[in-house]
């Protein structure tokens, strides 16, 4: 609870600090429930807010470029993407009911009879394929994080992350990297397109069909899992349908299944009888159900509400939700048109939401790397996000990640600071994941997180990630190849960073100038006066302790670089660094 108190105290302090500048620089502060709003003021504050919410961390050069372009031109650039679309990822069918069998047969030149009879050699081959399957998904996950860091199409990657937590499937249940990658490519290619097209695609997606047990949805015994989540999480929200609607919709989707990574309609298992769904009657199939849901008045309210809450970090008021639901209907489910309206809406830049959303683990780590402008192996970021509770392609449940305050406990907050220390070379991975007795904060972070996970207050897969990392630090070979890859990336890490040169070239001299520049570059919010004063006192004390008595700190050689990296680490460990 203490970290939440600190965060909300920080929220109040940053709001108060920004308040005096609001009339001149902060832009509109209109309420979030509609009504007359001031004209959008396009300035550094608002450009940085948009870059943080529509991408993954605003660098100073990005902010300046956005301000020069102007609001409308910059929003169009976000929607269009900055770079060329990357070459599609080549994914192999390595596992699953059909893919694994085919891959094993092809690689080992086995006959169908040999596969049926089973051998010790076949078991070894199956285990090897499963490991390779995990490695393929890890490779794809690293590619996605690399795209986030590069920022060539930030809004598409941001929306892909949103849909990844909206239309969830987990590798833990799907057990096929091929299907998971194909689903992700579906989400990414349609991330800024039509919600209707995306919904119809996900209803036939093999990973989703596998995840929600559609293979067992037969006319003799309908499985309600997909129909229920379709209404509760994908289209309508609770309270807008009945149990009868779920049961009837499940009948309509009987026969929808997957085979060899493709949608497969089993006609003999489809219930073609009369059904009653949400006040409509007919011999409906799954497509008819989707038609009914998309026409339901609750659907645009649900989708608009989810998107507003994600981008703004607060639940929208009824009037604001209704206004954007109407907009979604007006543009015929066009997501780019919806986002264009949102990003040019002065209320999107109101004080209530700017810099007041708790960053997810991916946001925190990718944002820190982008702001530091430092190349980092994406596997390190993937592993770090997993430790903090955002294990991509392994959501905790069908609802995805809860987000918000749930991202932060005392131990995950401490672990964020420690991971920032690893990125900056201040903490070794071995010291973080294999603390010696009495090692202090890293030890406390690990034991605290273990207690949180045990009590259900932690972040899902964090325990498994820590156990793997701990085994890696001890040199144990029992961990899987995916964990070993992450371990190698972390153990070989050496930050390519020269803060002394960077700040010296910027013409900065005094301690105050250096602290203010790093605060400005590394934080998405204004630091509290108390935080700034504490950092200044720390720099002064360390200069004296390290005998750096030169006129300019940036001329202090190796000790100055160590001090500046330590300063950056301290900044990224503050409550303010958890907000964007």
Summarize the structure.
The protein has 580 residues and is mainly alpha-helical. The protein has helices at residues 2-18, 22-26, 44-54, 60-69, 71-80, 99-108, 112-117, 120-150, 154-166, 171-174, 177-189, 195-203, 206-211, 225-235, 243-252, 286-295, 298-312, 318-330, 335-343, 361-372, 378-387, 410-423, 429-433, 441-454, 462-473, 481-491, 499-505, 511-522, 529-545, 557-572, and strands at 256-259, 262-265, 275-277, 280-282.
Query: With helices defined by DSSP (H or I, 4 residues minimum), what is the helix count?
Result: 30
What overall geometry do the principal axes of the alpha carbons give?
Answer: globular
Helicity, as a percent range: 55-70%
Distance between the termini: 20 Å
Count of beta strands: 4
**Average pLDDT, all residues:** 85
Structural class: mainly alpha
What value does the Rg take, in angstroms?
26 Å
Kindly report the spatial arrangement of strands forming the biggest sheet.
1-2
Keywords:
580 residues, 59% helix, globular, two-stranded antiparallel ribbon, mainly alpha
Write structural notes for this entry.
- The protein is an all-alpha fold and 580 residues long.
- The chain has helices at residues 2-18, 22-26, 44-54, 60-69, 71-80, 99-108, 112-117, 120-150, 154-166, 171-174, 177-189, 195-203, 206-211, 225-235, 243-252, 286-295, 298-312, 318-330, 335-343, 361-372, 378-387, 410-423, 429-433, 441-454, 462-473, 481-491, 499-505, 511-522, 529-545, 557-572, and strands at residues 256-259, 262-265, 275-277, 280-282.
- Among the domains are: 2-82 and 298-349, no CATH class; 361-491, no CATH class; 499-578, no CATH class.
- The chain contains 30 helices and four strands.
- The strands form two sheets. Strands 1-2 form a two-stranded antiparallel sheet. Strands 3-4 form a two-stranded antiparallel sheet.
- The longest helix is centred in the N-terminal third of the chain and has 31 residues, at 120-150.
């Amino acid at each position: 609870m203490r970290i939440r108190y600190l965060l909300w105290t920080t929220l109040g302090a940053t709001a108060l600090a920004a308040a005096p500048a609001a009339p001149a620089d902060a832009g509109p502060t209109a309420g979030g429930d509609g009504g007359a709003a001031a004209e959008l003021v396009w300035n550094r504050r608002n450009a940085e807010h948009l870059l943080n919410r529509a991408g993954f961390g605003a660098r100073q050069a990005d902010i300046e470029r956005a301000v020069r372009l102007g609001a409308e031109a910059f929003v169009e650039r976000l929607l269009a993407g900055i770079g060329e679309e990357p070459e599609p990822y080549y994914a192999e069918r390595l596992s699953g009911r059909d893919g694994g069998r085919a891959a094993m047969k092809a690689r080992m030149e086995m006959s169908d009879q040999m596969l049926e009879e089973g051998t010790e050699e076949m078991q070894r081959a199956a285990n090897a394929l499963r490991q390779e399957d995990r490695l393929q998904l890890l490779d794809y996950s690293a590619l996605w994080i690399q795209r986030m860091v590069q920022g060539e199409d930030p809004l598409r990657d941001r929306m892909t992350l949103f849909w990844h937590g909206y239309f969830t499937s987990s590798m833990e249940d799907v057990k096929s990297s091929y299907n998971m990658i194909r689903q992700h490519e579906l989400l990414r290619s349609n991330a800024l397109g039509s919600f209707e097209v995306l919904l119809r695609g996900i209803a036939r997606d093999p990973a989703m069909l596998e995840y929600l047990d559609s293979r067992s949805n037969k006319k003799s015994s309908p499985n309600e899992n997909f129909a229920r989540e379709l209404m509760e999480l994908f289209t309508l929200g609770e309270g807008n349908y009945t149990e009868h609607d779920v049961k009837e919709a499940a009948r309509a989707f009987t026969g929808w299944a997957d085979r060899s990574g493709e949608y497969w309609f089993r006609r003999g298992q489809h219930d073609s009888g009369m059904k009653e769904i949400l006040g409509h009657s007919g011999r409906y199939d799954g497509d008819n159900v989707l038609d009914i849901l998309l026409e339901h008045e609750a659907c645009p309210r649900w989708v608009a509400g989810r998107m507003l809450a994600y981008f703004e970090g607060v639940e929208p008021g009824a009037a604001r939700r209704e206004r954007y639901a109407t907009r979604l209907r007006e543009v015929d489910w066009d997501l780019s048109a919806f986002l264009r309206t949102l990003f040019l809406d002065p209320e999107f830049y109101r004080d209530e939401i700017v810099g007041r959303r708790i960053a997810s683990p991916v946001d925190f780590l990718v944002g820190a790397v982008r702001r530091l402008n430092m190349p980092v192996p994406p596997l390190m970021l993937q592993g770090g996000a997993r430790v903090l509770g955002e294990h991509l392609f392994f959501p905790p449940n069908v609802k995805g990640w809860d987000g918000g305050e749930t991202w932060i406990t005392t131990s995950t907050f401490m672990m964020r600071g420690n991971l920032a220390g690893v990125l900056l070379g201040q903490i070794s991975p071995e010291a973080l994941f294999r603390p010696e007795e009495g090692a202090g904060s890293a030890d406390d972070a690990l034991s605290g997180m273990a207690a949180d996970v045990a009590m259900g207050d932690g972040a899902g897969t964090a325990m498994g990630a820590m156990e793997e990392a701990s085994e890696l630090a001890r040199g144990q070979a029992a961990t899987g190849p995916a964990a070993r890859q992450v371990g190698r990336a972390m153990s070989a890490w050496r930050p390519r960073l020269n803060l002394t040169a960077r700040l010296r070239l910027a013409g900065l001299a005094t301690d105050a100038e250096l602290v203010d520049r790093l605060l400005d570059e590394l934080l998405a919010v204004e630091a509290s006066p108390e935080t700034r004063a504490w950092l200044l006192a720390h720099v002064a004390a360390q200069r004296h302790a390290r005998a750096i008595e030169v006129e300019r700190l940036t001329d202090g050689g190796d000790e100055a670089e160590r001090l500046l990296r330590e300063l950056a680490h301290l900044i990224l460990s503050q409550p303010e660094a958890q907000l964007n």
